[in-house]
Amino acid sequence: MSTHPSTPAGARLSGRTVLITGGARGQGASHAERLASEGARVLACDVLDDAGKATATRLQEAGLDVEYMHLDVTSPDDWARAVQHARTATGRLDVLVNNAGIIHVNPLLEERAEDWNATLSVNVTGPLLGIQAAAPLMRENGGGSVINVASIFGVVGAAGYVAYCASKGALIALTKTAALELAADGIRVNALCPGGVSTPMNEHEKEGGVIPQTPMGRRAHVREISGAVAFLASDDSSFTTGTEMIIDGGFLAH
């Protein structure tokens, strides 16, 4: 990433432009809030337009520089429009957070080609298209940081999640290859591998999911994932590229 003047504590990302996919709710909305609170101008993108606009409005009312834009990550045209918007608005793109993803459950022998293809299209092809669209603008300004949100289930398997596991494993491999190819341009590429994360759907559940196998005995709060995103987005991780950051409460330590 290019060198920026030192900024006050809590403003590590001052002057930087960030694009986040899946930014309408959940982890993506939390990442948008955290990076904007550190001084970034954030373009939060999603296909959930009502939720995305509501999130952007809420964060704007809190004094944060967050804008919403429609983006289907499987559409090269949508990617081109989003990156052009960043170019027009600020002349730069410093951070790309490939957070959008989908999941579905099906036993391996019952997996349907259409579900498999849809999962890989969003979870792997989407980040590929995003990197292809963003890298030229990042390069023009001396580099940047790409953060791909994978999963612990890209590292190990999970029965019933064949397409999801395959897509997240592929995303980790994409991360490493992109890190090798883009290092000379000053673009760092890393993957986050969260374990269980609390969402509105499961935050009140005491058991279930990965919790019984998680030594810390709980899911992560979205803020705990956002802290890692902020680290990878900032110059604090200036020598970190091509790796997976595991945030799983000890799940993979077994």
Summarize the structure in words.
The protein is an alpha/beta fold and 254 residues long. It has a single domain (17-248), classed as NAD(P)-binding Rossmann-like Domain (Rossmann fold). The chain has 6 helices and 7 strands. A 7-stranded parallel β-sheet has the order 3-2-1-4-5-6-7, with helices on both faces. The radius of gyration is 17 Å and the shape is globular. The N and C termini lie far apart (35 Å). Residues 1-9 have low confidence and may be disordered.
SSE map:
Layout: E1 17-21, H1 26-37, E2 41-46, H2 49-61, E3 66-70, H3 76-90, E4 95-98, H4 113-140, E5 144-149, H5 162-182, E6 187-194, H6 222-233, E7 244-247
Parallel strand pairs: 1-2, 1-4, 2-3, 4-5, 5-6, 6-7
What key attributes describe this structure?
254 residues; Rossmann fold; globular; alpha/beta; disordered N terminus
Which value, in Å, is the CA radius of gyration? 17 Å
For the record, give the distance between the C-alpha atoms at the N and C termini, rounded to a whole number. 35 Å
The CATH superfamily title: NAD(P)-binding Rossmann-like Domain
Largest sheet: 7 strands, parallel
How helical, in percent, are the residues? 25-40%
Portion of residues in beta strands equals 5-15%
Number of structural domains: 1
The gist of it:
This protein has a single domain, classed as Rossmann fold. The chain is built from 6 helices and 7 strands.
